[in-house]
């Protein structure tokens, strides 16, 4: 879906599909270099990270393995609920593995804080974090995120995996949702 297909639903486009792809290529090269000689396990956080995972992994030149977790942190609205629980766990034993968590967005950082302590308790060889988008509140917290696509304003954004009520994930660009859609 292109932003021209949903004219009126977006206030503005923050990043075009080309801009997202270009930034992702830079991050992929950086990750390739940082993990050179190591077998990396990418852990995608469903559902939003599907697009990032698919594009990041294919932009990389190294072999990677992939696994998925599903964690609930949001309701169907626009606010983080603070509720974090595992809906689907990894199938891989990450003990002794080099793990890179792949997220679409870090908003409050609640999900990530939970995820980091949970995954560290499984004794990985290393644990890194990559997110395509990061909001200001998360940028202020102490969690170290090694790879950030874009720091974005504290607005409701959709596209490239980010949804509103299950919609807009398949938008190729990323934009701010018009208030009339959710108010
Ligand atoms: C989003 C996103 C992160 C989380 C970040 O997932 O993918 O996992 O919210 O928010 P936080 O920093 O405030 O915790 P969401 O729960 O919306 O599920 P989804 O990926 O299925 O859209």
Automatic annotation (TrEMBL):
Its main location: cytoplasm. Residues 17-164 form the Phosphoribosyltransferase domain. Its cofactor is Mg(2+). It is found in: Cytoplasm. Its EC number is 2.4.2.8. Transmembrane segments: none annotated. The keyword Metal-binding applies. One of its GO terms (biological process) is GMP salvage. The keyword Nucleotide-binding applies. InterPro entries: HGPRT, Hxn_phspho_trans, PRTase-like, PRTase_dom. GO terms for molecular function: guanine phosphoribosyltransferase activity; hypoxanthine phosphoribosyltransferase activity; magnesium ion binding; nucleotide binding. Pathway: Purine metabolism; IMP biosynthesis via salvage pathway; IMP from hypoxanthine: step 1/1; Purine metabolism; GMP biosynthesis via salvage pathway; GMP from guanine: step 1/1. It catalyses: IMP + diphosphate = hypoxanthine + 5-phospho-alpha-D-ribose 1-diphosphate; GMP + diphosphate = guanine + 5-phospho-alpha-D-ribose 1-diphosphate. Keywords: Cytoplasm, Glycosyltransferase, Magnesium, Metal-binding, Nucleotide-binding, Purine salvage, Transferase. GO terms for cellular component: cytosol. Belongs to the purine/pyrimidine phosphoribosyltransferase family. This is Hypoxanthine phosphoribosyltransferase. It comes from uncultured Propionibacteriaceae bacterium.
């Amino acid at each position: 879906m292109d932003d021209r297909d949903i004219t009126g639903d977006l206030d503005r486009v923050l990043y075009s599909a080309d801009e997202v792809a270009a930034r992702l290529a830079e991050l992929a090269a950086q990750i390739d270099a940082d993990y050179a000689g190591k077998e990396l396990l990418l852990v995608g956080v469903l559902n939003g990270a599907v697009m990032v995972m698919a594009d990041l992994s294919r932009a990389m030149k190294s072999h990677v393995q992939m696994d998925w977790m599903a964690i609930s942190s949001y309701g169907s609205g626009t606010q983080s609920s603070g509720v974090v629980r595992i809906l689907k766990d990894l199938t891989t034993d990450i003990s002794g593995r080099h793990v890179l968590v792949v997220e679409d967005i870090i908003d409050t950082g609640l999900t990530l804080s939970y995820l980091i302590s949970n995954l560290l308790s499984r004794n990985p060889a290393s644990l890194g974090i990559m997110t395509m988008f990061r909001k200001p509140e998360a940028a202020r917290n102490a969690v170290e995120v090694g790879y950030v696509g874009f720091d974005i304003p504290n607005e409701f954004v959709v596209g490239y995996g980010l949804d509103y009520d299950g919609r807009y994930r398949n938008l190729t660009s990323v934009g701010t949702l018009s208030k009339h859609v959710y108010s």
